[in-house]
Protein backbone atom coordinates (compact mmCIF):
# COMPACT_ATOMS: atom_id res chain seq x y z
CA UNK A 1 0.00 0.00 0.00
CA UNK A 2 1.35 3.38 -0.96
CA UNK A 3 1.18 5.94 1.86
CA UNK A 4 -1.48 8.61 1.31
CA UNK A 5 -0.13 11.75 -0.32
CA UNK A 6 -0.12 14.77 1.98
CA UNK A 7 -0.73 16.93 -1.06
CA UNK A 8 -1.66 14.70 -3.99
CA UNK A 9 -0.52 16.18 -7.29
CA UNK A 10 -3.31 17.39 -9.52
CA UNK A 11 -4.64 14.44 -11.53
CA UNK A 12 -4.22 14.35 -15.30
CA UNK A 13 -7.72 14.92 -16.65
CA UNK A 14 -6.84 15.14 -20.32
CA UNK A 15 -8.21 11.80 -21.50
CA UNK A 16 -11.44 13.13 -22.98
CA UNK A 17 -13.39 10.42 -21.13
CA UNK A 18 -13.61 9.45 -17.47
CA UNK A 19 -12.47 5.88 -18.18
CA UNK A 20 -9.34 7.21 -19.91
CA UNK A 21 -8.66 9.65 -17.06
CA UNK A 22 -8.95 6.58 -14.82
CA UNK A 23 -6.23 4.84 -16.90
CA UNK A 24 -4.08 7.97 -16.45
CA UNK A 25 -4.36 7.80 -12.65
CA UNK A 26 -0.94 6.14 -12.67
CA UNK A 27 1.89 7.42 -14.85
CA UNK A 28 5.08 5.99 -16.30
CA UNK A 29 7.10 7.56 -13.45
CA UNK A 30 4.85 5.58 -11.03
CA UNK A 31 3.00 8.59 -9.69
CA UNK A 32 -0.08 6.89 -8.25
CA UNK A 33 -3.35 8.69 -7.49
CA UNK A 34 -5.15 5.61 -6.17
CA UNK A 35 -2.59 4.48 -3.61
CA UNK A 36 -5.01 4.60 -0.65
CA UNK A 37 -8.71 5.00 0.02
CA UNK A 38 -8.16 8.67 0.93
CA UNK A 39 -6.30 9.36 -2.32
CA UNK A 40 -8.86 7.42 -4.34
CA UNK A 41 -11.67 9.56 -2.92
CA UNK A 42 -9.82 12.77 -3.80
CA UNK A 43 -9.25 11.50 -7.34
CA UNK A 44 -12.93 10.48 -7.73
CA UNK A 45 -14.08 13.96 -6.79
CA UNK A 46 -11.49 15.85 -8.85
CA UNK A 47 -12.19 13.72 -11.91
CA UNK A 48 -15.93 14.41 -11.56
CA UNK A 49 -16.73 10.71 -11.08
CA UNK A 50 -18.63 11.61 -7.90
CA UNK A 51 -19.82 14.95 -6.57
CA UNK A 52 -18.86 16.67 -3.31
CA UNK A 53 -21.93 15.31 -1.48
CA UNK A 54 -21.11 11.73 -2.41
CA UNK A 55 -17.51 12.35 -1.43
CA UNK A 56 -18.55 13.65 2.00
CA UNK A 57 -20.86 10.66 2.48
CA UNK A 58 -18.07 8.23 1.56
CA UNK A 59 -15.76 9.96 4.02
CA UNK A 60 -18.13 9.26 6.93
CA UNK A 61 -16.85 6.41 9.05
CA UNK A 62 -13.21 7.01 8.10
CA UNK A 63 -11.32 6.82 4.85
CA UNK A 64 -9.17 3.89 6.07
CA UNK A 65 -12.08 1.53 5.34
CA UNK A 66 -11.81 2.63 1.70
CA UNK A 67 -8.29 1.21 1.31
CA UNK A 68 -9.53 -2.19 0.01
CA UNK A 69 -11.71 -0.36 -2.53
CA UNK A 70 -8.67 1.56 -3.77
CA UNK A 71 -6.93 -1.80 -4.24
CA UNK A 72 -9.93 -3.03 -6.27
CA UNK A 73 -9.85 0.18 -8.29
CA UNK A 74 -6.20 -0.40 -9.18
CA UNK A 75 -7.08 -3.94 -10.35
CA UNK A 76 -9.99 -2.63 -12.38
CA UNK A 77 -7.70 -0.05 -14.00
CA UNK A 78 -5.27 -2.75 -15.11
CA UNK A 79 -8.13 -4.92 -16.40
CA UNK A 80 -9.22 -1.99 -18.52
CA UNK A 81 -5.66 -1.44 -19.75
CA UNK A 82 -5.47 -5.12 -20.74
CA UNK A 83 -8.84 -4.93 -22.53
CA UNK A 84 -7.67 -1.92 -24.53
CA UNK A 85 -4.20 -3.23 -25.27
CA UNK A 86 -5.28 -5.71 -27.93
CA UNK A 87 -8.37 -4.52 -29.70
CA UNK A 88 -7.78 -6.64 -32.77
CA UNK A 89 -9.62 -9.50 -31.09
CA UNK A 90 -12.89 -9.35 -29.19
CA UNK A 91 -12.17 -10.32 -25.60
CA UNK A 92 -13.43 -13.62 -24.28
CA UNK A 93 -16.48 -13.26 -22.05
CA UNK A 94 -14.49 -14.19 -18.94
CA UNK A 95 -12.32 -11.10 -19.37
CA UNK A 96 -15.46 -9.02 -19.01
CA UNK A 97 -16.59 -10.85 -15.86
CA UNK A 98 -15.06 -8.47 -13.28
CA UNK A 99 -16.73 -5.54 -15.03
CA UNK A 100 -20.02 -7.38 -15.37
CA UNK A 101 -19.99 -8.30 -11.68
CA UNK A 102 -19.64 -4.62 -10.84
CA UNK A 103 -22.44 -3.65 -13.21
CA UNK A 104 -24.69 -6.39 -11.78
CA UNK A 105 -24.16 -5.01 -8.25
CA UNK A 106 -25.30 -1.55 -9.30
CA UNK A 107 -27.85 0.08 -6.98
CA UNK A 108 -27.47 3.59 -8.30
CA UNK A 109 -30.29 6.05 -8.91
CA UNK A 110 -30.53 7.04 -12.54
CA UNK A 111 -32.28 10.00 -14.14
CA UNK A 112 -32.51 11.37 -17.62
CA UNK A 113 -31.07 14.87 -18.10
CA UNK A 114 -30.55 17.18 -21.06
CA UNK A 115 -27.03 18.40 -21.63
CA UNK A 116 -25.03 19.34 -24.70
CA UNK A 117 -22.67 17.44 -26.93
CA UNK A 118 -19.16 18.58 -27.92
CA UNK A 119 -20.65 20.86 -30.60
CA UNK A 120 -23.00 22.47 -28.09
CA UNK A 121 -26.13 20.76 -29.47
CA UNK A 122 -28.71 19.43 -26.98
CA UNK A 123 -28.22 15.83 -26.04
CA UNK A 124 -29.95 13.51 -23.59
CA UNK A 125 -27.92 11.49 -21.22
CA UNK A 126 -28.41 9.34 -18.15
CA UNK A 127 -27.01 10.74 -14.93
CA UNK A 128 -26.41 8.28 -12.14
CA UNK A 129 -25.79 8.81 -8.44
CA UNK A 130 -24.08 5.86 -6.76
CA UNK A 131 -25.95 4.42 -3.77
CA UNK A 132 -22.88 4.43 -1.48
CA UNK A 133 -24.49 2.19 1.10
CA UNK A 134 -21.25 0.15 0.85
CA UNK A 135 -17.71 1.47 0.17
CA UNK A 136 -17.28 -0.77 -2.90
CA UNK A 137 -20.06 1.18 -4.63
CA UNK A 138 -17.45 3.88 -5.20
CA UNK A 139 -16.33 1.67 -8.09
CA UNK A 140 -19.72 1.98 -9.81
CA UNK A 141 -19.08 5.30 -11.62
CA UNK A 142 -15.90 3.77 -13.03
CA UNK A 143 -17.69 0.62 -14.15
CA UNK A 144 -20.30 2.73 -15.99
CA UNK A 145 -17.58 4.86 -17.52
CA UNK A 146 -15.72 1.79 -18.79
CA UNK A 147 -18.94 0.31 -20.18
CA UNK A 148 -19.70 3.62 -21.91
CA UNK A 149 -16.19 3.80 -23.33
CA UNK A 150 -16.38 0.27 -24.75
CA UNK A 151 -19.94 0.65 -26.09
CA UNK A 152 -20.06 4.22 -27.34
CA UNK A 153 -16.60 5.53 -28.16
CA UNK A 154 -14.53 5.01 -31.29
CA UNK A 155 -11.53 3.22 -29.83
CA UNK A 156 -9.59 3.83 -33.05
CA UNK A 157 -9.19 7.39 -31.76
CA UNK A 158 -7.48 6.24 -28.58
CA UNK A 159 -3.91 7.58 -28.56
CA UNK A 160 -0.89 7.58 -26.34
CA UNK A 161 0.94 10.91 -25.94
CA UNK A 162 4.00 11.02 -28.19
CA UNK A 163 6.09 12.64 -25.43
CA UNK A 164 9.05 10.31 -24.95
CA UNK A 165 8.63 9.61 -21.23
CA UNK A 166 4.90 10.24 -21.15
CA UNK A 167 2.39 7.42 -20.78
CA UNK A 168 -0.81 9.45 -20.82
CA UNK A 169 -3.67 8.27 -23.02
CA UNK A 170 -6.46 10.30 -24.59
CA UNK A 171 -9.28 10.11 -27.09
CA UNK A 172 -8.40 12.31 -30.03
CA UNK A 173 -11.52 14.42 -30.46
CA UNK A 174 -9.91 16.98 -32.77
CA UNK A 175 -11.61 17.39 -36.18
CA UNK A 176 -8.40 16.50 -38.02
CA UNK A 177 -7.61 13.59 -35.66
CA UNK A 178 -4.08 14.93 -35.40
CA UNK A 179 -3.75 15.40 -31.65
CA UNK A 180 -0.30 14.22 -30.58
CA UNK A 181 0.16 15.41 -27.02
CA UNK A 182 -1.43 15.00 -23.61
CA UNK A 183 -1.18 18.77 -23.42
CA UNK A 184 0.53 21.41 -25.50
CA UNK A 185 1.71 23.05 -22.27
CA UNK A 186 3.70 19.98 -21.21
CA UNK A 187 4.74 17.47 -23.87
CA UNK A 188 3.89 19.65 -26.89
CA UNK A 189 6.15 22.50 -25.81
CA UNK A 190 8.86 20.09 -24.75
CA UNK A 191 8.84 18.52 -28.23
CA UNK A 192 8.82 21.94 -29.89
CA UNK A 193 11.82 23.04 -27.80
CA UNK A 194 13.70 19.81 -28.65
CA UNK A 195 12.99 20.29 -32.37
CA UNK A 196 14.18 23.90 -32.13
CA UNK A 197 17.38 22.83 -30.37
CA UNK A 198 17.99 20.21 -33.07
CA UNK A 199 17.48 22.80 -35.83
CA UNK A 200 19.74 25.45 -34.30
CA UNK A 201 22.49 22.91 -33.55
CA UNK A 202 22.73 21.75 -37.15
ZN1 LIG B 1 2.47 13.78 -22.64
Automatic annotation (TrEMBL):
The record, for InterPro entries, names:
ABATE, ABATE_dom_sf, Znf_CGNR
Q: Which Pfam families match?
A: ABATE, zf-CGNR
Return the Gene3D superfamilies for the record: Jann2411-like domain
Domain spans labelled Zinc finger CGNR:
158-199
SUPFAM superfamilies the record matches: Jann2411-like
Official protein name in the record:
Zinc finger CGNR domain-containing protein
Organism, as annotated = Methylocella silvestris
Amino acid sequence: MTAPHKNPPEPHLIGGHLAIDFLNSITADRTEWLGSGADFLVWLEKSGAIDANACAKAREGGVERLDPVATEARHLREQLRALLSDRSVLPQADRLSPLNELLAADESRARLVVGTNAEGAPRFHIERAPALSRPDQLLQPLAWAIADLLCNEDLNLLRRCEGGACSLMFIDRTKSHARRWCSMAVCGNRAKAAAHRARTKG
